[in-house]
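Handout, section B. The chain below has 349 residues.
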Amino acid sequence: MKKYIILLGAGHGINDLLAGYMLGNLAFRGDVKMTFVSLMIYNLLAFGGQYFVSLLLSRTGKHSFFVRLAWCFHVLALFLFEVYPPTAFIFSGMGSAIYHVAGCSFSISDRESSSVGFFAAPGVLGLIAGGYLAWQGYNLIIFLVVVCFIFLMLFLKVPLKNKPSLKRKTHTPVTPDMHDWLMIALLSVVALRSAVWNIFQFIFQENYTALIAIALSAAAGKLIGGWLADKVGLRFYIYFTLLSSAPLLSFLKHDLVAMSIGIALLQSGVPATTVLLYRSTNCHKEAAVAHTFGTAILAGAFIFLLPKDWLTQNIMIPFSLVMLAVLLLAFTQKSKKLKAKKLISSPIH
């Protein structure tokens, strides 16, 4: 594993720590309206903006430049935070979207998913740490500005190189096909209990016992999951983690131990999912990252628009949707293989 993957992963942790600290700081002040507005701005840009960043990066190819630009946005966000928080979250959200797509693209390979796990794991730990430090009342703005400058200097000196990609057959736009949409739908359903959205809820509730449990479970799941998926097979491992985590998160979501295991299983499939999406998007690393780290998490936001009674009274619906999506995906893959066999076996005229 390249040393810069570890550096990128550490940067991912700091990236999310900034968001957790600023959001936790607003929540600690008790300004509910400002916190809500800032949270929506950040999530729409940080997660919803990743697909647009992927389009930009796929055309320009300047990944290293955008990694450094992300740190400049973070510094600007920290300076603006005390002036007017929503403005700070605009730059923080853009910086986060850029760093996720540009940074994670360096860790993707068609042969292994463990590197993606190393990049992804520190994120949730940083988010928890930031919220906890804000809750404790620490004033870390100047310290975080210095940390951002240090990472900016490191990325100016450390050469970043993409791993070899699969050979693209043709140049196609970064547009997901039916297989991609099924994967996204699957992830969106599972995002009912996405770790990121649980974290935001627990920050406001000041339930740091649950937060620490989720953070450690998610980080361990991503680290171990990437390695296990390489051993047993990416597609099999994704099916296993989704089917095993869904009942835990649906039926035992109030049990901290069961929820932690479910979160670990769910998050452990992130590295494998990213690599599979990378393959299915004709080797577009940027699109694969945007789907996994952006689209799936943002989809979890729509769950909070549903009536609370609907979710509690229809507890089997999320699990049933997961099962249906898995079956559809498996059927699609089988149909593609059958068509390919027919083409191969058909005589040439």
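Note. The first helix runs from residue 3 to 29. Compare this with the example in section A.
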